[in-house]
Amino acid sequence: MKLDVKKFFTNLVIGMKDHSSDLKMGVGTGGVIGGTVVLCRETVKAKAIMDEYRDAKAELGENAEKKELRSLKLKTAGKVVANYLPGAVLEGAGLGLMWNGYSNMKAAFIGAGLACGELQEFINKYREGVRETYGEEADEKLAYQFRTEEVVVTDENGEEHTETVRIYPHDACNMPSPYARYFCYGEAEGAERSHTYNGRFLELQQNLMNGYFRSHRKFMLNDCYDMLGIKRSKAGNHVGWVYDPNAPEGDNEIDLRIREVYREKYDEDGNPDGWERVYMINPNVDGMVEDKMIRLGLMDE
Question: In the predicted model, is pLDDT for residue 210 greater than 50?
Answer without folding.
Answer: yes
